[in-house]
Amino acid sequence: MPCIWGMWAETMSLRNLEIASAFYIGAALASMGCYASNYSCQGRTVNSNSGPPLCSLTLYGTGTCNGQDQLPLTGTNSGQGWQNPWEPFPIQIKGVAITTFQDPRKDLNQFEYIFAGNSYTPDIMAILGGYSQNQTVMFPGAGFPFPPIGTPGNNHVDLHVNCAGRGSYQIYYTLYYQQDD
To answer: Is there a domain that residue 45 lies in?
Structure first.
């Protein structure tokens, strides 16, 4: 009998070990959810336990090259050629992308410059020129601060364009950002 009892005791201790392991693994997995936080990207809730998600806002613009500085963004929350703060919390702009489109058969425009501006920091976040079509600039480990909705002052992001050639263009301006904790 001692041999059978010993085997049963050994089995029980292994079984208890399995139960305890399952409990601790389950508790560890459950606790990961306990530490998750809710973040927001343009009013959409994002649950993350690894910090704020990377959000993006894409703005569209169009214009005709005339050799003058233009603010071509349309459909912005300012009703002008720039975007006022759009989130209810401060953000860090982590990158920008600028993409231009033109009809090469009739609209081959020479861009003097296109630059992504931030009046809050203030800084130029990206610049391109010539016949450039696309540029993405990311700022690893850094960012440009930008205030929340309702912050006093003329705080906005914009896109300045100056081009010659008298042709038309379309432009997309994407901002990649995170909630600033």
So the answer is: no
What is the model's pLDDT at position 122? 74
- Give me 108's structure tokens: 């081959």
Q: Specify whether 22 is located in the same domain as 61.
A: no
What local confidence, expressed as pLDDT, does residue 26 receive?
47
Tokens found for residue 165: 């050639």
Please, which pLDDT band fits residue 123 given cuts at 50, 70 and 90? confident
Which residues span the domain enclosing 162?
A: 53-179
Is position 146 within any domain? yes
Q: How many residues are there in the chain? A: 181
